[in-house]
Design a protein that fits this description.
Layout lengths: L7 H11 L1 H18 L11 H15 L6 E2 L2 E2 L6 H13 L3 H27 L1 H13 L1 H6 L5 H21 L7 H18 L2 H17 L10 H22 L3 H15 L11 H9 L7 H10 L4 H19 L12 H16 L12 H18 L6 H10 L5
Antiparallel strand pairs: 1-2
Length: about 400
């Protein structure tokens, strides 16, 4: 090598440092942080869910009981305690407020954005990664749930982490690597199970098993560290279940059969809906990007299904199918499908943007038009709330006291 000439690695590093796209990525994630965290203190806690969840976390500090959840100082054993412990820890660090109670949801949402960007960049490139993260951030339901005290955003983060780790691990098997990624996958599944029960295990397991079945990659089982992984999953998920059963005998029977099996199989909780319930929720919750779903489905139908898009399709379809078969339906159940759906749409539109023909870019008119109409509608609602139902009028006046 001639004197004074940089080695290839140094030259590549220098090029990456000078690449202006790096600064756009940094600016984008700074914008994400600002958008997610700037308004957590804006509105009072919604009833009943936010107020109840925040109060359960507050009573953890008052009772100094980090094992048994309490509400109105009565044991409430319908959900695991991990999420409430996280909120209680936020209270301990930053004081009790709307901001600290919502912090865990915003942090989990930020984690989902990073994972979505990382996975889509790994598969499809940096531009798709940025588009996917932007689509996820600006989806109505995802952003709304990032701003409230609810378990599902933390669950979505752990599920996304687990499936991203599987993807990264299985891509490194041929090189004799992937052990660390698979072990982290089991830990994330354990944390998801400790956040919301068996669904935290069943959803990622279903996606992985069906993926291996359809791709005939059963050889992955030899590299997935199943014995050590199962032990790690149990170590992460089981201690709380054991402790709460010890302190509250009969808890496991109540939680598994009444809070999970009964919710799924019976109408006892009176949260029923038609089979297309979650399709309707997704159509509204994924706005403004719902307008691009027909184009995404059309492109997916026309092309041969590669392993990446197959994995994303399973990640979207299987949770939708499971939740649709359930007799108990709530809008936020569908949240775990938003990261793969954002990646799928991002991978569809980014190549079209690079097409030299302007005729292929008409579809980008829909999201800005929707944002304009939504903003205009929100402004009208807050200026003249009188035509809203009484409960919504109360919320508008509580959120913006100056609105008359």
């Amino acid at each position: 090598m001639p004197i004074g000439e940089q080695p290839p690695s140094a030259e590549i590093a220098s090029q990456e440092t000078k690449d202006p796209a790096v600064y756009w990525i940094i600016a984008f994630f700074i914008f994400c942080v600002w958008l997610l965290f700037s308004n957590l203190l804006g509105a009072a806690l919604f009833e009943p869910d936010e107020g109840r969840n925040a109060e359960i976390a507050r009573e953890i500090l008052l009772l100094k009981d980090w094992v048994t959840p309490h509400y109105d100082f009565i044991p409430r054993l319908d959900k695991p305690i991990l999420f409430f412990d996280v909120v209680a820890l936020s209270y301990k660090l930053f004081g009790i407020s709307e901001w600290s109670s919502r912090l865990s949801s915003a942090l989990a949402a930020l984690g989902c954005l990073f994972l979505t960007y990382f996975l889509s960049r790994t598969w499809f490139g940096r531009s798709v990664g940025l588009w996917s993260a932007l689509i996820l951030l600006t989806s109505v339901e995802f952003f709304a749930l990032s701003q409230i005290v609810i378990l599902d955003m933390l669950l979505t983060f752990f599920l996304t982490l687990a499936l991203c780790c599987f993807v990264l691990g299985q891509s490194r098997v041929d090189r004799g690597n992937g052990r660390a990624q698979f072990l982290l996958m089991y830990a994330a599944i354990g944390a998801a199970t400790a956040t919301k029960g068996p669904i935290g295990f069943l959803l990622p397991a279903a996606v992985v098993v069906f993926y291996m079945l359809l791709t005939r990659r059963w050889v992955l089982l030899r590299s997935m560290e199943l014995p050590w992984g199962a032990m790690l999953l149990v170590v992460v998920a089981a201690p709380w279940y054991v402790l709460v059963e010890y302190r509250n005998p009969g808890y496991l029977h109540h939680f598994i059969w009444e809070e999970n099996v009964a919710r799924f199989a019976t109408t006892e909780f009176k949260r029923t809906g038609p089979w297309y319930y979650f399709l309707a929720v997704l159509s509204g919750g994924f706005l403004p990007w719902t307008t691009l779903l027909p184009l995404t489905i059309r492109n997916l139908w026309k092309r041969q299904l590669d392993s990446e898009r197959l994995f994303l399709t399973l990640w979207i379809v299987l949770p939708l199918l499971v939740f649709s078969l359930s007799s108990s339906k709530l809008p936020h159940y569908v949240l775990p499908v938003y990261p793969p759906l954002a990646i799928m749409v991002g991978a569809t539109i980014e190549p079209l943007l690079r097409d030299s023909s302007l005729k292929t870019r008409w579809f980008l008119a829909f999201p800005p038009v929707y944002f304009f109409l939504l903003s205009f509608g929100v402004i009208l609602v807050f200026l003249w709330p009188g035509f809203l139902p009484d409960r919504l009028q109360v919320y508008v006046h509580t959120t913006c006291p100056r609105v008359s």
